[in-house]
Structures are given as C-alpha cells and as structure tokens.
Amino acid sequence: LLLIPIPLLGTTTLNPVTSVSGSLAPSGLVLGVYEKQSNNDGIHLTEAAAAFDRSISGKLSEMLSISGPPLKKGKSRIFYGLHQDFPSAVVVGLGKSGTGVCGKENWNNCKENIRAAVSAGCRQLQDLEVAHVEVDPCGDGQSAAEGAVLGLFEYDELKTKKKVRVTTQPYGSVDSAAWQKGVMYGDGQNLARQLMEAPANHITPTVFANTIEQKLSPFAHKVAVHKRPQSWIESEQMGAFLSVSKGSEEPPIFLELHYKGSLDSAQPPLVLVGKGITFDSGGISLKPSSGMDAMRADMGGAATVCSAIVTAAALKLPINIIGLAPLCENMPSGKANKPGDVVRAKNGKTIQIDNTDAEGRLILADALCYAHSFKPRAIINAATLTGTNTQAALMLSNKHRLINGFSLSFIITGDRVWRMPLFQHYTKQITESALADLNNIGKYSRSGGACTAAAFLREFVTADHWAHLDIAGVMTNKDEVPYLRKGMSGRPTRTLVDTHLHTKQDNLLE
Ligand code: BES
Ligand code: MG
Ligand code: ZN
C-alpha cells in the first residue's frame, strides 16, 4: 500500500532512542518473540529483542529457553534484573512471523498480533506500577504504538483509586513518523472511548460539544467549531431532530466542525455525520432496564466522527472535512414523542414515529439533509443504530468506490466491516405508512434492522457518494478485542481517520 505522506510530520527517520537512566525512574521494557516456524528452529526474537539480547551477551535467549516452553501468541513472561536500565522486562509472544492479511478474518494478522502483544506487555508493567515503558516496535512502529496507547487506556476518572499513568516510548531504532502516527491513532480512539464510557449525566450534549471544542483548540487556525443551539435547529426546520430532543430537559446541540486541511480551501469537503444520542432510554417505547446503562454510549457515532476529526487535525491531513453531530437525549416525558406521532423533517418529508426507540434515524435524517448544503465530495455517517453484537461495523453505501476505500482501512486497523445491502425491499418497508410519507420502523419490525434503518436514511440522501456505518455491533468490548479493556470501544475511530489515506481523493468522485 502506498501511503500519502503526511506533511509537516517530518520525514521518516531512524531515531536511535536511548534508554532512560540516571536520576529518572527506571523503565520497563516490552519485547516481542515470534513463534517457531519449525521444531528445529531456535528462539526467534524480533530485531529489537535480538539487539537487547546481544547487549546482555545472550542472557535473554538463555533465560527464555530455560524458563519454559516457547511463548505462544499473546502469552508473556517477565524477567527481572536482566539489564540495569530495565529492572523489569516482559517478553510477549507475537505468533508466527510474516503472516499478513487474512482473508477469512478480514484483518492483518501481523498488525493485530503486535497490538495485542504490546498491549498485554504494557498492562503487565502497569500492574507492577512501572510508570515508564520502552516498547519494541516489532517491525511496525504504528501498530506497536497503537497497542501501547489503546492497551493502557482505562476510564477511571471518577474513581478515587486510579491505575498508574504509564508513559511509553519506542525501544531501539524506529520509524518515528510511524510511531507518532500510531500514538495519534490510539489517542483518537481513546478520546472516543472516554466520551462513550463517561456517564450520561457527565457527558450531556453541551459538555460533549465543549469537550470537542477544547480538543480542537490547538488547531484553531484550521478549524471552526459551531455549537448550534435549539433556536438555530428550529430555524433550520429540523423537525425530526427536535421531536426527539423535546422529550428531555437537556438542551440539544447541533455540533458543526469545519477542518480545512487542504491548501485548496475550495476543495469539496468530506462530510462526516455522527449520531449523538447522549442517552437513549427508548423514550415512550421504553427500553428494558437491564443493560440500559450502556445507552450512555449511544453517541458513539458522534464520538468516533468528532474524534477522527480531532486526529485528522493533529495529523495535519491535507483534506477538508466537515463534521456534523446532532446531540440530544432520548427520554420519556410529557413532551416526548408518542407512537403514531407524525413529524416533518428538514426536506419536507413527513415521518410517522411508530417506535420512539428508533430515534437515531430521526436525528440523522435532518443532519443528512443539512450535510448536502456543503456540496460534499462524499457523506459518511456513523451511528449506533440497530442493536446487534456483530463485532464488525455494518456498511451500507450507494457507491462501490467508497466501499473499497473503507474496506482497505478496516483491514489495516482491525476494526472489521460487513457490507450489507440496500435492496428496494427494505425501502418498501419504511415507505408504506398509514399517516405519513415514511414510517420510522419497518413493517416487519426488527428483521433486517440495519438494512431497514439504512433504507430510511437513504430517503434523506440525494448525493451519490454516501456510506452509512452502523456501529452498534462494535460499541462495547467484552474481551473480543484483546488490546482494548472491557468497556466502550471507540471503534471505528482509527478507520475513519485512516480511510482518507487509502482512498485516493479522485476515486471518490468516480
Ligand atoms: N441505540 C439503539 C441501538 C442499540 C442497541 C445500539 C444496543 C447499541 C446497543 C437504537 O436507538 C435502537 O433502539 N434501535 C432499535 C430499533 C428498533 C426499534 C427498530 C433496535 O435496534 O432494537
Ligand atoms: Mg433507540
Ligand atoms: Zn439510539
């Protein structure tokens, strides 16, 4: 793959990174070891691990072979006192070397193995309260940095007892631009995780908007942030969005971000739209109480989209992006939508709301109409729209090129994607409504939920470059992704950033 070089980040250099010594606290060290290819193979260390081994006259490989069987993928062993600069060194299994993209898994094995191994090693040292860790880049500094940054994240802001804050740096020679990029990708996803994990009484629409504004403040010369209040939303005649927000005491905000990274300020922007329901109770179609707390993350679309824009700005990506996030709560109240209510969206279409829990498509409908006013190169929306645990984002799009560009990035980042269809069959389900032009639920209710939801959204899209990502299936992580702790995943933030590097700009227009 050819990466478009990232300007101003400096050219790729080989930086010999010296270890911390002297008055500073001692460092921990994370090193990788591959699985043996054959039985008569010796220990197969990474380049950095082999260099470390040489610096201590082969003591590492000696210890590895006497301490037990060869390390399996993701398994680790910790050694103390091998080197005076590194009182604790963790060696982690990377699996077989030279495995690449796996068609069955739809990801890059090498990258996933590095992320998992580095994350496991860093966490072990964090548990030992080692505050600074040097990390083997494992031949792919970006993936190693992502593993470290993502693996160490834990949302403990509201706990008295917090995990040790660990700083990391690459060990040995590394492509520093790749490492830096990995750190920024990881930080971006962690920002989305933080917003999603935080309780709904802490991250209200207002706080969400302020947080993103503050994160974008270092890039103010290239960024504009508009926090549109209710009066603006009313003047834009966003009747579908307003119908959801009026059920809550919390004021809605329509967040609008402009990132001008292209030297050509007239370059048509990419518009990213994210569902920003900061809490989804279901409304009058109330959800069951068990597990309802997870609905604090129903702003995952807005969180990943806005975090991707923060990351794009940090990376100085040479493109123009506009981010749109309708932010509100979906609550039951005397003012809330009632099943059977009819509202009018920004484009004039009327919608019968037969289920108030299908609110995401309502707020997105107006945001999608508004997105067209920027004459975008492409519109991409991300939303936790229909509940499933697919562990892959669902992608529905009216453009092959968009799908191809995205699919590549999903493989690289390990976020994974399934393509789903936009058959007329689904459109029929939502265009047959007793009282209005559209119904917000399909007449066969939940079957093919993601497809009917996408068919509904398509009623508000006239651009012919549109992709919808239903990310409900990747909202949470139990233990499926080994380098993310249990909790809200922040997926697919890295993919939303990465796709701009792998989608040739003019391809989008074909
Ligand atoms: N926010 C939910 C979808 C969701 C559920 C995301 C679980 C993540 C985990 C959405 O607003 C919703 O309630 N969708 C309904 C739609 C149905 C009423 C047509 C669903 O999927 O059940
Ligand atoms: Mg809902
Ligand atoms: Zn929802």
TrEMBL record:
Gene3D superfamilies per the UniProt record, alphabetical: Leucine Aminopeptidase, subunit E, domain 1, Zn peptidases
One GO cellular component term noted in the UniProt record for this chain: cytoplasm
Enzyme class: hydrolase
Matches recorded under InterPro entries: Leucine_aapep/pepB, Macro_dom-like, Peptidase_M17_C, Peptidase_M17_N
Alphabetical keyword list: Aminopeptidase, Hydrolase, Protease
Listed GO biological process terms: proteolysis
One Pfam family linked to the record: Peptidase_M17_N
Enzyme Commission number, as recorded: 3.4.13.23
UniProt domain Cytosol aminopeptidase: residue ranges: 355-362
One MF term in the entry's GO annotations: metalloaminopeptidase activity
Catalytic activity field: an S-substituted L-cysteinylglycine + H2O = an S-substituted L-cysteine + glycine; S-benzyl-L-cysteinylglycine + H2O = S-benzyl-L-cysteine + glycine; L-cysteinylglycine + H2O = L-cysteine + glycine
Residue ranges of the TM segments: none
Entry function: Cytosolic metallopeptidase that catalyzes the removal of unsubstituted N-terminal hydrophobic amino acids from various peptides. The presence of Zn(2+) ions is essential for the peptidase activity, and the association with other cofactors can modulate the substrate spectificity of the enzyme. For instance, in the presence of Mn(2+), it displays a specific Cys-Gly hydrolyzing activity of Cys-Gly-S-conjugates. Involved in the metabolism of glutathione and in the degradation of glutathione S-conjugates, which may play a role in the control of the cell redox status.
Family per similarity comment: Belongs to the peptidase M17 family.
Oligomeric form and interacting partners: Homohexamer.
Protein name per Swiss-Prot or TrEMBL: Cytosol aminopeptidase
Organism per entry: Sinocyclocheilus rhinocerous
Gene that this polypeptide is encoded by: LOC107754151
